[in-house]
Design a protein that fits this description.
The structure is a single chain. This protein is an alpha/beta fold. It folds into two domains: 183 residues, 3-Layer(aba) Sandwich (Rossmann fold), CATH 3.40.50.720; 99 residues, Orthogonal Bundle (N-(1-d-carboxylethyl)-l-norvaline Dehydrogenase, domain 2). The protein is 46% helix and 16% strand. Strand 5, helix 5 and strand 6 form a beta-alpha-beta unit. The chain is globular and about 55 Å long. The protein binds nicotinamide-adenine-dinucleotide.
Length: 307
């Protein structure tokens, strides 16, 4: 029996984050049902998920069983997973984790639809920066709504920021804490203020790293090397490419709106997003990408200078 008492988990969106969330939910013993906009997207997402589980099996073999998961655990996780294109099918879930794109109206629309369908369980959003209270209002039952901000890549990152909206109930909060434990994660409670805790620290750090490049103080790869001196595993510009530069810009704007001009997005970040260079998912951002492997600095970024 799980600590949370939850049995079936729904996941909305099988993109970068939904994929990892569905994987971890299924690995943790939950019956997991994932929805997305089309059968093709679901098929692609499941193929990525399968690859991710296979990497864990390889790590298991290489480490003599110390790391990763066994082939049997992989098969068991896969049998707990299923997909659907119909949101209605998620009504039987005890809890739904929404991991759709970071667009307030889109997320509000999903919440409204679930309310119209009379969904009775808990709904959480993986939003990076949208007000939890705002999303809870669209759901209409704010007591059963909160934020659950997983980190990328979900199967490897232990921390999950958990954010109460203004009216989230104690019962919902406690269930989410227990769910973090069930999923082998560490909960980090934060209040519903722009950027919560993690992005409030992280986004200005990335923004400043971009300004250092714009001003010609240091190059892209040297900026990223600097943070190795801080014992970070990956530099801010490479991580920003992983996260998605559109998501980074969106959070900058949210922070600036609520906390002031110190959080204003750097011009280079805006230019990259305007040009559709969104990082690893589009194959180019601060770096050129070969799949999810960086293959050199983007020459346009290397050339760009503003003082
Ligand atoms: N990328 C990151 O590193 C990161 C980290 C933490 C939180 N987040 C947050 O997680 C959420 C998802 O981000 P992502 O990077 O996985 O995005 P993504 O674009 O990779 O994936 C989103 C998925 O949602 C699907 N989708 C779109 N509309 C839908 C709908 N109406 N119903 C069902 N599915 C729908 C898309 O087809 C896509 O597969 C965002 O709120 C983002 O801010 C992202």
């Amino acid at each position: 029996m799980s600590e949370s008492g939850l049995g079936k988990i729904g996941v909305i969106g099988i993109g970068v984050m939904g994929n990892g969330i569905a994987q971890v939910a299924a690995q943790s013993g939950f019956t997991t049902l994932v929805t997305d906009i089309s059968a093709e997207v679901l098929e692609r997402g499941l193929a990525n998920l399968d690859k991710s589980l296979s990497r864990l099996v390889k790590a298991h073999e290489k480490s003599g069983g110390e790391k990763g998961i066994s082939p049997v655990a992989k098969d068991e996780a896969l049998t707990r997973l299923s997909t659907t294109t119909a949101l209605e099918d998620l009504l039987s879930c005890d809890l739904i984790i929404e991991a759709a794109p970071e667009k307030p109206e889109l997320k509000e629309g999903i919440n409204r639809k679930l309310a119209e369908l009379d969904y009775k369980g808990i709904l959480v959003s993986n939003t990076s920066g949208i007000s939890i209270t705002r999303l809870a209002a669209a759901f209409g039952t704010p007591e059963r709504f909160m934020g659950m901000h997983f980190m990328n890549p979900v199967p490897l990152q232990k921390g999950v920021e958990i954010i109460r909206g203004l009216a989230t109930s104690d019962d919902t909060f406690e269930k989410i804490v227990a769910l973090c434990h069930d999923m082998g994660k560490i909960e980090i409670p934060a209040e519903d203020k722009a950027g919560f805790a993690i992005n409030r620290m992280w986004v200005p750090f990335v923004n400043e790293a971009i300004r250092i490049v714009e001003e010609g103080v240091a190059s892209v790869d040297d900026v990223d090397k600097c943070t190795l001196c801080l014992a970070h595993k990956m530099g801010p510009l490479m991580t920003a490419d992983y996260v998605g530069l559109d998501t980074m810009l969106f959070i900058c704007d949210v922070l600036e709106e609520e906390l002031g001009s110190a959080y204003k997005a750097s011009p280079l970040l805006k230019r990259l997003v305007e040009s559709g260079q969104l990082g690893a998912k589009t194959g180019i951002g601060f770096y050129s990408w070969d799949g999810y492997r960086a293959a050199g600095v983007n020459p346009d970024v290397a050339r760009y200078r503003i003082k």
